[in-house]
Amino acid sequence: MKKVAVIGTGVIGNGWITRFLANGCEVVAHDPAPGAKERTIQAIENAWESVEQLGLKEGASKDSLTFVDSIEEAVKDADLIQESVPERYELKHGVLKEIDRFAHSNTIIGSSTSGIKPTDLQIGLNHPERLVVAHPFNPVYLLPLVEIVGGEATTKEITNRASVYYESLQMKPMVIEKEIEGFVADRLMEALWREALHLVNDGIATTEEVDKAITYGAGLRWAQMGPFMTFHLAGGNAGMRHMLEQFGPALKLPWTKLEAPELTDELKERVIQGCETHANDRSVEELEKKRNEFLVKLIDLVEDYWP
Amino acid sequence: MKKVAVIGTGVIGNGWITRFLANGCEVVAHDPAPGAKERTIQAIENAWESVEQLGLKEGASKDSLTFVDSIEEAVKDADLIQESVPERYELKHGVLKEIDRFAHSNTIIGSSTSGIKPTDLQIGLNHPERLVVAHPFNPVYLLPLVEIVGGEATTKEITNRASVYYESLQMKPMVIEKEIEGFVADRLMEALWREALHLVNDGIATTEEVDKAITYGAGLRWAQMGPFMTFHLAGGNAGMRHMLEQFGPALKLPWTKLEAPELTDELKERVIQGCETHANDRSVEELEKKRNEFLVKLIDLVEDYWP
């Protein structure tokens, strides 16, 4: 992959451009908004020091960027196309149809959509099979996660190829097999976000207090582990098995506006086995030691950089 | 504050003991379980290197710990009492009544409960006014957050005094004025947790994938900022105002099992004003610069410590 087209240059599109440039790609961008090019150049300028610190690939240059006046011109020779126009179905779908019309038939089109199902985006395309969702996280040039979701027309070969592409951009692709609105990461984030809005709406906490409740608590742990391994470590030596016994009943309590699933034996086993497999023979004590070393450094880091 | 009583020595109680010792307190502990003392000594041993790295207070010593055989003996001369018995109302309430009976009438009792309302815990106490929830986060000896929640009988003077106590333990106390089940931090965590269980239950993602979706994405940002400031920075120069325009409509979409509140003009303004006040005249660009410096270091740190 050498030449990448980026369609739509808002915060996300510009984040992609920076990542592509930092990884030695040649980028052709298109956005019809007045002043788009200048804003993109400024955005790259602001981000460049950070990507340099993380490490540039050979041949990486801020100058390998061209702005063109049409989608056709942007996509016609591209090896990968990244669509990042605003999150409105009609707009996105129209742009994707135009991309599809002018791109090589086997060029992968990645859509940055946060939650629209790829099957819905594939409707009416000439080559729907090469469209995947490739959903990144802000700031795109730093955060490694990208969710790869195929639609009904997408083949396994395409999601695999897409996964390899994005991995070559120093990302952590996560292929999601079952297509649902919001995919995986945004479902988790959106649950937290909606609960946070309820807390503010009900006058329980200010936005600053909600942020404080995360940054000085769970947020520190989630940087290293997600919710499952975090709870595995909170369960003492018996890990998640003990945790579910201890806090399973809380799933029935009004601790959030979100109804929990029934904690069946099957779900319990799935969660416990998942954590134990992930722990991979490392005892809770061993994992705790690693976590503690990490947290000590992270707490120092947070002190230096926030508020 | 010099002498602290800790009642209940599971993962949380032992975390408290370590924090108290690291901050130069003398600790008297009680737990009727066989082998409790040995487990506590081991837990302190495992954690001590980390608290040393974060910095011990003058006079801090692992040896300033005594185990005693009764609640009476533990609490009678204490300046602060921390209750951390298992999360079952009847058990906690019984223990708190016994603590209340033997403690000095003006000694603050902090309950580590994750979600039981302090008003419910105060029922039948001789001096209910000095009972507050002081809810910590695992690992208690490292994570700074502690939620302070008073019940109906609690005076403002007591929550203030409690707040000063916990702050002197190098913690970040957050006083929550409105008493609700789950308080603030656990409501947020529980929303994420329940959504995560739904994803696993519905076969959308494995526990490992859920964890990956957090650790390589939002988790990195949440270590430094909570959900509100994170979105403020994702909104470009117009910050949260733009973000709500862009992603407000997504609140109606099935991106989580949790119903969102109505995004009224009042709620919008509350959220926007909250973020702008917190940003405190720092532009989004300025905050982004700080965030990027932080993320570069954090990403390096995560590489070193996980998996």
Describe this structure in words.
The structure is a homodimer of 307-residue chains. In chain A, α1 (11-22) crosses α2 (36-54), α9 (227-234) crosses α10 (239-247) and α10 (239-247) packs antiparallel against α11. The first copy, chain A, starts with a strand and ends with a helix. In chain A, strands 3-2-1-4-5-6-7-8 form an eight-stranded mixed β-sheet, sandwiched between helices. Chain A folds into two domains: 3-176, Rossmann fold; 185-305, N-(1-d-carboxylethyl)-l-norvaline Dehydrogenase, domain 2 (Orthogonal Bundle), CATH 1.10.1040. Chain A is an alpha/beta fold and 307 residues long. The first copy, chain A, is built from twelve helices and eight strands. The first copy, chain A, has helices at 11-22, 36-54, 71-75, 89-102, 118-122, 156-167, 185-201, 207-222, 227-234, 239-247, 265-279, 284-305; strands spanning 3-7, 26-30, 65-67, 80-83, 108-111, 131-136, 145-150, 172-176. At the A-B interface, α2, β8, α7, α8 and α9 of A face α2, β8, α7, α8 and α9 of B.
Fill in the keyword field for this structure:
2 domains; homodimer; 307 residues; alpha/beta
Brief account:
Two copies of one chain form a homodimer. Chain A is an alpha/beta fold. Helix content of chain A is 50%, strand content 12%.
Chain-wise SSE layout:
Two copies of one chain form a homodimer.
Chain A: E1 3-7, H1 11-22, E2 26-30, H2 36-54, E3 65-67, H3 71-75, E4 80-83, H4 89-102, E5 108-111, H5 118-122, E6 131-136, E7 145-150, H6 156-167, E8 172-176, H7 185-201, H8 207-222, H9 227-234, H10 239-247, H11 265-279, H12 284-305
Parallel strand pairs in A: 1-2, 1-4, 2-3, 4-5, 5-6, 7-8
Antiparallel strand pairs in A: 6-7
Helix pairs in contact in A: 1-2, 9-10, 10-11
Binding site for NAD(+) (chains A, B): 8-13
Enzyme class (chains A, B): oxidoreductase
GO molecular function, one term (chains A, B): NAD+ binding
